[in-house]
Every structure is written in structure tokens, then in C-alpha cells.
Design a protein that fits this description.
alpha+beta; Lipocalin; eight-stranded antiparallel barrel; 8 strands; 51% helix
């Protein structure tokens, strides 16, 4: 008896068939969203440019229309998926997919009332979900296994008051402070992703994914990280994959009973299709791991320069003298920057110049705020240029003079104002980076 004949003899209840139709429609739609997201990521890694996915042209028209004409949102949707996965666009997109899944379920149920079960289609759905979830686990996991997702502790971060950090920034700082823990978290996600690609190990991979993603979802909810929708869906997908083995797991882990093997249902009665699915899973895993490792190592080397590659002016420079030649001076920051950083009158004077990396330097203001800037140093001509991505109309240009290793003079212009600054390099030790690890602690070290 072949697999097709065997499955035809099994009868699912109406509620089970109805539930399967809805779950199938919704998960396929969401997995297409995942595949399109992975397409964007790999296009960016390869070309360095963000491009639309294959699904974006349609959704970018449908979602704003639904928001305006169906939900009657007060603001037209113009912000699409970006670094935040919890935008209004994302929530409305999920609502659209739920609606489409309901409509498809109704039509499907009306046209296919007599089918006894969907065993083969269920196996294909599990195959699709396994691939999609494995891709996400490998993607996020490699960003931690090669610790680039949270970056490193920068001088700017170490100079920021804890009370000025957002909850998300606090979480990022916490993770960046311990690369071993970040690597451990990434290993769990990568392990889940690899196991999900092997059919016989998919249940184990799903269980690991549930543990990993439950923790990630709790962190996202607790620290207001805008990946709540995605992490919740990954958790649901892992639970969906474990569901067929739920009773067997309960028998072994809870009730102390024996558990018979779960019957294996192939994707098709054709051998070449089943073998092709295995080859596809293996190829996907190899390509993902190789490419993510390659790009991850490149990014890590770029974001973590060696001490020899650091800027000659690396350090935290405290401003001793800040002199403006014009009286009264013009504004030191543009209106856009003043509004963005909430700078009150008299709080625009520089207190510190923090030189870390060219793209990760910062200006410390007298009110304690930090303005992250890009910095370009020309050692041949002795010049220093500062720009701010938040407003391209703002810039600073200086001629600098080093006096020994600990003193620095700057002469030039800030937003068109002629200024001169005298600074010294601060020698403040950071307990967060200097404490290290100790097996024996006679007392707690707070």
C-alpha cells in the first residue's frame, strides 16, 4: 500500500480540517513574508543597497489603502518595514494576511468539503515552515555567534548615563558587555536552525527554538525591542512543528509512559521529490551558513578595528575652554538637531569630544546629551571634519594641534561660528570593561 492510499483511509473531523485550512493559508502567507525578508537581507549584503522584495510592490499599495479606507487610521501609512518590525505597516500587514487567510479558508471549505484529510499537504506545510524558521534561526543566530548584532561597547556608550539609555539601548549595552553570553545565545539559535533542516531532528530543533525564542520574545516585550511581532511568530512556528509530538513528549517527560514512534509520511510517493526536498534543505543550510559566516566576519573586522588601526585621537577628550569669537554667536546646532536632541538655550556648548570610530564618535553637550556624529581625520593636513547624519546641513571643520599625548587644541568653525577649543584626554577607567572575570569572589562587586 503506497503513502497516498494509506492517507486516504484516515478521516479528520470537520473542525480539524477547518483549522488546518486556516493555519495553512496564514502560515504560507507569513512564510512568504519571511522569504521576501531574507531576499532583502541577502541583496543588501551582496550589493550594499536596500531593495524591495518580490512581495513589496503589492503590499506597499494594499496596506496603506487598508489603513486609510478600512481602518480609517488618522495618519496615512508612509513608513514601511525598516529596522523596526513593529511599525503600523507591519501590524496592518498581519491584519491583511489574517483576513486573506479567513477568506481563503471559507472558499477552500466550500469547494473541498469531501476531502477526508490533508496529511500530505500537512507534511508540505511542515516542510515550508521548517525551512522558513531555520532561515530565521540561522540568520539571527550567526549575528550573535559572530557577535555583530549588538556591537561592542564604544566610548560613547560608556560615557552615556544609564538613566539616558532607552530600554532597548540598555538591552543592547547589556548584551554587548558580554560577548561570551552573546555567542552562547547565538549558538542556541544556530543549533536550532541546523537541526530544523534535518527531518529526523526537526522536533529537537523545534524544542530548542521554543526555548530560545521564548527568551527572545520575553526580552523584546520587557525592553520594548521592536521585533515583538516577528519573535512571537517564530515562537508559534516552532510550537506548530512540535505539536504532532506533543502527546508523545508528555508521555515520556510527564506521565512516565512509553511513546511509540510517530508514523513518517513522505512528501510524495515519488522518490525523486522526497530526495529533492532533502537536497534543497542541505543546500539551503550550507549556503546560508557560508554566506552569513563570510559577511559576519567581514562586518566584525570592520566594526572592531585593532588598536593599531584606531584613530590617533582615540579617546574621551574633555573640553577645558570653549571660546566663540562672535558676540552674540549664532546657533551651534541647526533647528532640526536642537529639536531632535531637545537642547535648551545655553545647553549647546561642547563638554566632551568622544573619538571612537569614524562613524561612532560623539559630542557630549553640557546637558549630558550625546550627539553621535561621523568624523574624518586628515593627519597629513592636520584637519578634523565632523558631520551629523541627522542633518546634512550641519558640519564642523577644524585645524587641530596635538600637545603631547594628553592635550588637543581645535581652531575652526561649528555651524558657521568661529570657535577655539582646548581639550585634555580623560583617563576615566571603566569598571564595566576592566572588571574581567573571577572564579572566586569573596564579596559581590557592585
Amino acid at each position: 500500500m503506497n503513502a497516498q492510499t494509506d492517507t486516504e483511509q484516515i478521516y479528520w473531523r470537520f473542525a480539524t480540517r477547518l483549522a488546518f485550512r486556516f493555519v495553512f493559508c496564514y502560515l504560507v502567507l507569513y512564510c512568504l513574508y519571511i522569504f521576501s525578508g531574507e531576499q532583502i537581507i541577502f541583496q543588501y549584503l551582496i550589493s550594499g543597497r536596500l531593495m524591495d522584495s518580490f512581495a513589496d510592490p503589492l503590499w506597499h499599495h494594499v496596506v496603506p489603502w487598508v489603513g486609510e479606507h478600512v481602518l480609517h487610521l488618522s495618519t496615512y501609512i508612509t513608513i514601511f518595514t525598516n529596522g523596526s518590525g513593529d511599525t503600523t505597516y507591519d501590524y496592518v500587514l498581519i491584519l491583511c494576511e489574517l483576513f486573506l487567510a479567513v477568506v481563503a479558508t471559507v472558499i477552500w471549505s466550500a469547494l473541498d468539503r469531501k476531502r477526508p484529510n490533508y496529511r500530505l499537504l500537512y507534511e508540505w506545510l511542515r516542510f515550508i515552515v521548517r525551512l522558513a524558521l531555520a532561515m530565521e534561526m540561522l540568520d539571527y543566530g550567526m549575528d550573535k555567534l559572530i557577535p555583530v548584532q549588538f556591537g561592542s561597547l564604544t566610548l560613547g556608550t560608556l560615557s552615556t548615563r544609564v538613566g539616558d539609555l532607552s530600554p532597548e539601548s540598555l538591552l543592547w549595552t547589556f548584551m554587548a558587555a558580554s560577548k561570551p553570553y552573546t555567542i552562547f545565545a547565538g549558538f542556541g539559535e544556530v543549533l536550532a536552525g541546523v537541526l530544523l533542516l534535518v527531518p529526523q531532528l526537526a522536533t529537537l530543533g523545534s524544542l530548542i527554538a521554543i526555548g530560545v525564542m521564548a527568551n527572545v520574545f520575553a526580552l523584546n516585550m520587557s525592553y520594548d525591542v521592536p521585533v515583538k511581532l516577528a519573535s512571537f511568530h517564530y515562537l508559534l512556528m516552532a510550537a506548530f512543528l512540535v505539536l504532532p509530538d506533543a502527546q508523545r513528549l508528555l508521555n515520556v517527560l510527564v506521565f512516565n509512559r512509553t511513546a511509540a514512534p510517530r508514523p513518517s509520511v513522505p512528501l510524495s510517493s515519488r522518490r525523486w521529490i522526497n530526495q529533492g526536498a532533502l537536497v534543497l534543505s542541505a543546500l539551503l543550510g550550507v549556503v546560508l551558513l557560508a554566506s552569513l559566516t563570510h559577511f559576519g566576519l567581514q562586518r566584525y573586522a570592520m566594526e572592531n578595528p585593532t588598536a593599531a588601526a584606531r584613530s590617533p585621537l582615540y579617546g574621551v577628550w574633555t573640553v577645558d575652554e570653549f571660546n566663540l569669537s562672535a558676540k552674540p554667536p549664532g546657533p551651534l546646532f541647526t533647528d532640526k538637531l536642537v529639536a531632535g536632541m531637545k537642547i535648551a538655550p545655553g545647553e549647546d556648548r561642547w563638554a566632551e569630544l568622544i573619538i571612537d570610530t569614524p562613524s561612532g564618535s560623539a559630542i557630549g553637550l553640557s546637558n549630558g546629551a550625546l550627539d553621535y556624529v561621523t568624523l574624518r581625520l586628515d593627519t597629513a593636513n592636520g584637519t578634523l571634519s565632523v558631520a551629523d547624519q541627522a542633518d546634512p546641513n550641519w558640519n564642523c571643520k577644524f585645524v587641530y594641534q596635538r600637545i603631547g599625548e594628553q592635550r588637543l587644541n581645535l581652531q575652526g568653525a561649528i555651524n558657521g561660528n568661529s570657535v577655539s577649543l582646548k581639550l585634555h584626554r580623560s583617563q576615566r577607567p571603566s569598571r564595566l570593561t576592566s572588571r574581567g572575570f573571577h572564579w572566586i569572589n569573596e564579596f559581590s562587586f557592585f
